[in-house]
Amino acid sequence: MKRALIFGATGGIGQAIAARLAESGWSMYLHCNSNWEEASDLARTLAEKHPLQDFMPIKLNFLAGDDQLKNFASSLLPVNAVVFAQGITNYDFLGSQSSQVIDQIIKVNLENPIKLTKLLESQLLKQEHSRIVYLGSVYGGQGSAMEAVYSATKGGISRFAQAYAREVAASRFTVNVVAPGAVNTAMNAMFSPETLKELAEEIPAGHLAKPKEIAYWVDCLLNPESDYLTGQTIYVSGGWLE
């Protein structure tokens, strides 16, 4: 049985990834940070549609310390793939952000994903084909004003993936980043409809991405036939920015 661990499975993109991978025959751990009821509902819904697969909600605070990360990783059944779809931002000038907010963005988007990668490496290396996909951002390629720390973490995860992929490539263990542009999710709900309309007009494709348009590329990267693609950041942006 092929099993994936989807971090951030209750988010807009995370739910779309879970639905797409379920259609492709994956069993899954569905991670949430705090939305346990939502993760449980997602697991039940997917189990009803795909009764021959397993869907298990699982909880971890991404601000957790090292001991909690180790306990989490050691509690898992073997997985073939890990998708890091969690992430936070704070839309503000750097000079107005507290040190606590800066630390949280770095920990959730970069530091703990790297630590969890280290903890999960040994079991992934045992698989015939193993995969890690990080959700990056177009802002990892071109930094965004008002999201300087967020941009730094997304650029950092792309460089980490590029370097780490070279360490494990000989084991058919691929490491890639799917970097969306503007996506129609709750993360962009802070902006007015007028602002989002103006943004859509800047995108050559003419619209914000639907979450399922991002999930498609994650599914492709998890396919066993994608062994030769590793260390890459794939920008799914409708032609916008990177």
UniProtKB/TrEMBL annotation:
Record-given protein name: Putative dehydrogenase
Entry-linked InterPro entries: NAD(P)-bd_dom_sf, Sc_DH/Rdtase_CS, SDR, SDR_fam
NCBIfam families the record matches: EF_P_mod_YmfI
Domain of life assignment: Bacteria
Family: Belongs to the short-chain dehydrogenases/reductases (SDR) family.
GO biological-process terms attached to the record: monocarboxylic acid metabolic process
